[in-house]
Amino acid sequence: MGASGGILTVWNSSLFVGSPWLIESFAVGVSFVSTQSNEAWNLVNVYGPCQGDERREFVQWLFDLNIPDDENWLILGDFNFIRSTNNRNKPGGDAADMLLFNELIRAQSLMELPVKGRAFTWSNMQDDPLLEQLDWFFSSSCWTTSYPNTMVLPLGKPVSDHIPCVVTIESSIPRSKLFRFENFWTNHDGFMEVVASSWSKTCHAPNAAARICKKLKNLRYNLKRWSKGVSKLKVLIQNSNETLAIMDTLEDKRPLYVQESNFRKILKTHLQALLKYQNEYWRKRCTIRYFRFADENTKLFQSLATERYRHNAIAMLRVGEVEIHDHVGKEGVLFNTYKECLGSSKPTSMRFDLSRIIRRIDGLDQLSAPFSTEEIDAVIKEMPSDRAPGPDGFSGCFLKKCWQIIKSDFYDLCHAFHAGGLDITSISEGYITLIPKISSPETANDFRPITLLNCCLKIITKILANRLQKVILKIIHRNQYGFIKGRTIQDCLAWSYEYIHQCHSSGREIVLLKLDFAKAFDTIEHAPMLDIMKHMGFDDRWLGWMETIFGSGVSSVLLNGVPGRKFKCKCGVRQGDPLSPMIFVLAADLLQAAINDAYTQGLLELPIPRENAGDFPVVQYADDTILVMQSCPTQAARMKLILEDYAASVGLKINFHKSTLIPINADHQHASGLAGVFGCSVGTLPFTYLGLPMGTTRPSVLDLMPLVHSVERKTSTALSLMSSGAKLTLVNSVITSMLIYAMCTIKLHPKVVEHLDKLRRYCLWAKNSDDGIKANSLAAWELVCRPKRCGGLGVIDIKIQNAALLLKYLFKFYNREDVPWVQLVWEAYYPNKVPHATELMGSFWWKDVMQLSGTFRGVARVIPGDGCSSLFWKDVWFSDTGSALMDTHPRAFSYALNEDDSIAMVLRTTDPAMIFSLPLSVQAREEIREIQQGSSHVSLENGSPDVWVCDLGRYSSKKYYNHCFKQVKADEAFGWLWKAKCPIKFKMFGWLLMVDRLNTRNMLKRRHYNVDGGDYTCMLCQNPPEETVEHLFFTCPFAQQCWSRIGLMWPGGTNRLAILHGGREDWRRPLFMDIFLLAAWSLWMERNNQHFRGIPRSFVAWLVRFKLLLGLVIHNCPEKVHPFLSDFIVNLDS
Length: 1134
Prior knowledge:
The chain is α+β, with helices and mostly antiparallel strands and 1134 residues long. The protein contains 42 helices and 26 strands. The radius of gyration is 34 Å and the shape is globular.
């Protein structure tokens, strides 16, 4: 130990037997065995050097550390690394170091144990301290399932510049006693009978809401009793396995009787169903809802559920300087916090003349039309099946499966609500679940409260939300983008990028004010919301509904799955209610109306003059607001008054001390004076808005590090527990989806794309235990990124997808859609100009988009309107051939004076000398005559913009992405592969087989691996031919013995795809590809068992495994092939 750092590992020898196995200057490793239970685990205590050769040695040691997948490891200590810019309280950090540290974590498949209640663990102890998280706690993936309830809790920091922490370890996760409908119940015999019997009982209640509440309560009771026989899956699975073992032991001693054999078959089918239910149970609780794993891996789902628990569990709350750890104390903190904001109404004073500043909309009375049964049915159909339920415990899956039994009562509820006067208090209770807003939440305010509502109330509010969505575009100002169909978050960011650039280019002194509203959704008052809606034109019936919903809300906070005390919601809108976001947006729109009014009266001036400016430059996405104004103290003071009046009118509080003023073309001293007017801090460009860097320059690698870091964390999610097929699903369905938001908005930095591809490659190929090769790419990335129909794995090519998503902007732009940024760009850069014939101008964002104009015009043609935005010679408009005139009429084009003339310029000019270089050749005159005849039907209309139509049909990024691969052809066998019914891990294996990328001995030879001193013969038959894919799976004598039992005869040949075609032609029965994949997989397992585990190949073992896999697949197959598959499995034993 040293004075400024060191490592000490001590243990209680009465509890653990410790054996040190590593002692280095930067790490001490000890293996422990419990004296109580003989459980074994490893602890590595780390102290990472800060710089120099020792740091490089430390990094290399971490890379080389061998952590077996099946052992429990804890690695913790001061690593002297940060993972992302979020691990510092100030800007900065070395991006290369972050990437390196995350690569270390990923390479070892470590899972982070978050420090509960602390964002940073180290301080430089200065007056204005630099805070960082340098201390990290990691476990192996095996630890996650062995000790799921492992927490890291911070302690006080009396002396050191590091915060001491304690790791608490428990082997089970506390389970909530709340009723929760399990979706797998619907597949059990007797479930529908229990529901029908319970629901049909007479229930006396004062109204429709109370009646449904009572029926759901009775149903909960009956389902709890019924489910005792089906919910103890672990016990049932254990009993089934033990019974099967007894039957197998009995068969070793004598042949089974017919009754015993049939019983065993029934028991196997029952066990397969139980395993499926167990997977569904853990799948529902795993952290990645939008990830549909196709293979069955209960251990994986359990690990993901554990990670979710660790992330969301509240181990400690801080109030001032006091840390509270006990449940009662934490519940009290949460109750007081949310009762104060949601449960207490504050007096408001409307300081605006709503009748003057709010535009009344005609026709809103249509929102109060009677509810139809079709409308209610549609809501049930689109309701998600797997979302967390409210206090009643029932999910969307229950509603869908049981709708025919329960729908009449729900129809009555909706009609009674429509009539007005219905007391819905009995169904209006909600559970507030707390989602961390930051990685290490410390206080109650560090969580986002999401309310879980009862299913019946959610049906009503969803109906109202669907109706309001149809008219809200007519009500809300153009620069409010939150939760409104037809206005996207990308449109919001596009306007912001472009307007900020124009402010910067103007040279004027301008400031941006980024506002921070304190708990806006939770504190906005009900009365002003109703008043605003009334002045907008909503009728009395609608207002009565809103008053009923506002006045009936009751909530309680869930603390680690346990509900706290109830309180009545007297203000705010409950996040989690489908209607709440749009109601909030209606009230938030008052701010734009008030600022517009001040602008109209001359109190505010535009930061940059514009003709037809319309609204004052305010951009809002719900409560995320940016104001743009002149850098003027008078303007700032007037804006401050408007903001204060707005906050007082609707009950909101603006956190000016958390708001930021960003100067553009203004010096820091002047900006500081303006910031003093608002009481906010001064910021700089770029700043983060809606999760992306916002500024006048292209985002750097460091700016995009939060995106990279989020992917880094996901790629370390239980990879060692995943099959190769699950990893493919993770890459395609989760990791790539995480990038879509950024790719929809900006062109990603090439270095970022390079690193993201590296992460995805690692995720796809890491620790491929099926073939014993660790973290080596088995196929070229270009092949992997081809669509499945083109012979690839369908992994998205980021560059192509980025371009495909950005092209949407160009279709909006060229077709002049009614979106603010479109109007802004046209007016600023292209008055009377053809955009793609003009040099690049505008913001970095717009330049990146316009660089795709050539790509856009390659998949689009023009229907001339006024002919001003399209080129006569270079754009496709003249015919349906898909070619421009410069290609179809090259001689006429060669005489053009200006190859960038617009269609309007040429067609409206009567003097040929204005267009062509005279005299013309005979051939050119003939081509011009053809053009004149062909364009005679074109009638240009002033004020009618050109229409750009996508040649691929209605444009979508998916269509363009597929278009990029139209020249790539693949064998039709790949189509058979992906249409197979077996789990995706077998399809992944089949793909590797078909593209000859399995690690056969021949492949290892081609990759220059030295195997057994140069022995590359077949592992199964030990014959002289090299172990190629063709030999191992088709011509090897052992393989042929297996295929013979199935009845598959392969033609001769050396091409695996040709052999597959021949075998399929001879098969002439269903499920050819499934049977081939499962049988080939079993062969591969026999080969690997012999090679890696020394287990001799066995025909019986192959057959048993093959039959078991077939039995699992039957659940995914259409019912019409069940008889064939059942007979096929039976005949395998004959």
